[in-house]
Amino acid sequence: MIFVLVVDDNDDDAVLIGHSLTRAGLQVRVTREETSEGVARALTAGPVDVVICDYNLPSVRAEDVLTQLRAHDADIPFLLVSGQVGEEVAVDLMRAGARDFVLKDRLARLAPAVQRELTEARERREHRRSEQALRLLAEHAHDVIFRFRLRPEPAMEYVSSAVESITGHAPEEFYADPALIFRLVEPDDRPLLERSWQSDQPGTLTIRWRRRTGEPAWVEQRANAVSGPDGHPVAIEGILRDITERVRMEEQLRQAERLDSLGRLAGGIAHDFNNILAVISGYGAMLTEELGPDHELHADARAIEQAAARGSGLTRQLLIFSGLEPSRPEPLDLNAVATDMQRLLTRTLGDDIELTTMLSLDLPPITMDRNKLEQVVMNAAMNARAAMPSGGRLTLTTSVARDTGHVCLSIMDDGCGMEPGVASRAFEPFFTTKGRGRGTGLGLATAYGVVTDAGGTISLESAPGAGTTLRISLPPAEVASRPSTLVRRPSTGGKVLVVEDEDGVRDIVCRILRRAGYEVQAAPDPATALEMCRRGDFAMDVLVTDIIMPGMSGTQLAAELRRARPGLPVLFMSGYTSGSAPGGQELPADAPLLHKPFQTDALLSALHRVMP
Q: Which pLDDT does position 545 carry in this prediction?
C-alpha cells in the first residue's frame, strides 16, 4: 500500500490523481489537504510515502509545502502536478527539492514518476542507514579514519573523533586548520608524510606525532590516493593507528635481546676467567701453606688468594647479570657487606662524592646471596651518582626495625630527587630518566626482584631538591647450630680420576689431591677418560670432572661411566652452570657441583662428602 498525500484545493483533481495511479497497477490510499496546517497534520498523523502538490493554491504556496516536507523527512518524494506553471518556476522548485513535474493533462506520466521516486527514496534511506552505520563505526573506532582533500584547496573533509585521543586536538580543529595535521608531525618525519600524500600510492608509513601535551606518539598510516580525471591525486583517505605502545614493546624486546646477547658474552668470559682464577687461587693456597705464617712472603701469598677471591666475586656478578648463575643464599653480616662496599664505592663514585657509613651494632645475620646484595647496593649507588652530577653525599645506614626485628639498610643521597610521578614508577622494568643509551631501566627493577626473593621489602622516598632514600628491609636469618660442612678429609687415600680440559686447572687439582693423600690419574678430555676406563686394569673410586668440555660434557661423561659402574661417586667442577648442561644432561642429584675458583679446603671437603 502506497500512502499518497495530495495537496490540492480541488477534490476532483485529487480523485483523478488516485484513479491514474490505480489504473497503473499501484495500490494507493489518497489523503487530500489544502492548507499548511492540514499538511502538518497529515505528516504527523500517519505514514506518507509521496506528496503530490498543485502549484496554484489559494491557502498555501507549493514552496512552503516543500519546505514543510523537507523539515519532516527529506527522503519523501515531492512531485509537482499542475495545469499552469511557468518553466522557470518549475526549475526553481526542482532545485529546491522537488523530484519531478507533471502536467495535469498528462497524468499518464505520474505513475512511472511515483514508482521511480519511491524506489530512489528507498535507496536513499538505505544509503543513509549504511552511511550512519559507517560513521558510527568510525566514531567508535580506536583508529583515526580520515579523508583529506589535496586539490584545488587543501582541506580536511573528514576525520574521526579518535584523533583527539592521539593528538589532543578535536576534529573541529583539523577542519578549521588543514595545515594542523602537518604541524603535529615531528619535523624530521614531515617530508615523509607530505611525499606520501602527494603520491598515487601512499601505502603504509610510520611517523611520529607530537601530542598537545608534548609527548611523542608513533602513528602508522595505511592510506589510498583518490585520483582525479587527470590521474593525479585529489584526495587521500585511510586510517591512522596509534602504535606507540607497540613501538615501546618492540624497543623493550630489542633491549632484552641486546641484554641477552651481552649476558651470554659475559657468561662465556666469566667461565674462562674462572678457570684462570682457579689456577691462581690454587697455587696461591699452596704457596701460603708451604711458606707458613712466619715466612716473609706469607702475606704476599695471602694477597694472591684474596685477589683471586675478589676476581671470583666479579665474575659471579657477571654471571648473575647474564642469568646463568643460580642464587646461593648464605648467612651474611650486613655491616661487613656495607663496609666492603664502602671500599669499592669509594673508588667507583669519584672524589666529589662523600661516602660515609652509619652502622648499628649487634645486627642479627641475614640470609641472602652476597653478590646479589652487593649488586643492589651498587645499582643504588650509581643511581645516586647520576643524581649528584656536581658531587654530594652518599650515606649507608644499617639498623634493626623495632616492630618487626628486620635488618634494615638505607642508602641516602642529597641529589636532585625525583618528581612524584617518576618516584612512583622507579621499580618498573625498563623505566629510566637517564635518556637513550645511558640507562637500561633494569637497576631498581632487578633490586626489587632480588630483595623480594629474599623475603624482604624495598621502598623509595624522594622529592625534588630533597634527595632520595632507598630503604631495604630483610628478615633475620634463622640461627641453627649446625656443624660446619667444610671438613678436610684425612689422608686415608682413594683413587680419583680428574677430567679437565684446562691444563692449569687440571694440574692444580691433581696436585691438591695428591698432597692430601689421594692416588690421582688425569685425562685432558672425556674421550681420553673413556679410553682409560675401558682398560681392564684401570680402577677408580670417584670421578672429578669439569662440566663444559669440547666433544662431550662432564654430565654426559658421568652418565656414560655410570652405565658400567652404577653408583660411581661424581664431583662436578664448573665456572658456571644453570639447569641443563650441554648435551641435555641434568646434574645428577647425588653429584654436587663445586664452583670455580675454589679454595683447597672446599675441594677436599666436597670430595670427602661423595667418597664411599
A: 95
C-alpha cell at 341: 662496599
Q: Which residues pair with 222 in a beta bridge?
A: 204, 239
Encoded amino acid at 552, one letter: M
**Does the pLDDT of residue 131 top 70, yes or no?**
no
- Contact between 604 and 516 under an 8 Å Cβ cutoff? The reply is yes
At residue 190's C-alpha, the angle toward residues 186 and 193, to 5°, is 125
Given a cut of 70, whether residue 583 has pLDDT beyond it is no
Q: Which of 95-99, 219-223, 529-533, 584-588 is predicted with the least confidence, judged by mean pLDDT?
A: 584-588
- Collect all residues with Cβ–Cβ distance below 8 Å to 533 and sequence separation of at least 6: 497, 540, 561, 564
Could you tell me how far CA 572 lies from the centroid of its own chain?
39
> d(Cα 378, Cα 375) in Å, to the nearest integer?
5
Q: What's the DSSP call for residue 428?
A: S
Q: What is the mean pLDDT of the chain?
A: 83
Predicted confidence (pLDDT) per residue in 332-348, tens digit = 899 988 888 887 787 77
Q: Which three cell numbers stand for residue 349?
A: 663514585
* C-beta of residue 601 within 8 angstroms of C-beta of residue 607: no
Cross-strand bridge partners of residue 80: 53, 101
Contact assessment for residue 328 and residue 585, using Cβ atoms and an 8 Å cutoff: no
Interior angle at CA 283, CA 278 and CA 285, nearest 5:
95
Q: Are 164 and 213 in contact (CB under 8 A)?
A: no
Q: pLDDT value at position 487?
A: 44
Q: What average pLDDT does the segment 347-354 reach?
A: 81
> DSSP 3-state assignment of 270?
helix
Res. 172: pLDDT tops 70: yes
Three-state DSSP at 303 gives helix
Confidence at residue 400, expressed as pLDDT on a 0 to 100 scale: 92
Q: What are the Cα distances from residue 180, in Å, to 129, 203, 210, 211, 233?
A: 32, 21, 11, 12, 20
Question: Which stretch of DSSP H or E encloses residue 457?
Answer: strand 457-462
Cross-strand bridge partners of residue 399: 408
> How far, in Å, CA of 110 to CA of 101, rounded?
9
Q: How many angstroms separate the first and last alpha carbons of the chain?
A: 106
> Quick check: 385 and 481 in contact, CB under 8 A?
no
Three-state SS sequence of 544-578: EEECCCCCCCHHHHHHHHHHHCCCCCEEEEECCCC
Nearest partner of 372 among 449, 257, 437, 434, judged by Cα: 449
* Residues in a beta bridge with 511: none
CA-CA distances (angstroms) from residue 76 to 22, 99, 355, 370? 20, 10, 87, 85
pLDDT in tens, 178-223: 999 899 999 988 898 888 888 888 888 888 888 888 888 889 988 8
At residue 288's C-alpha, the angle toward residues 284 and 294, to 5°, is 150
Least confident of 73-87, 320-334, 507-521: 320-334
Please give the residue that has the higher pLDDT: either 42 or 228. Answer: 42
Residues 6+ apart with CB under 8 A from 262: 322
- The answer to whether 52 and 81 are in contact (CB under 8 A) is yes
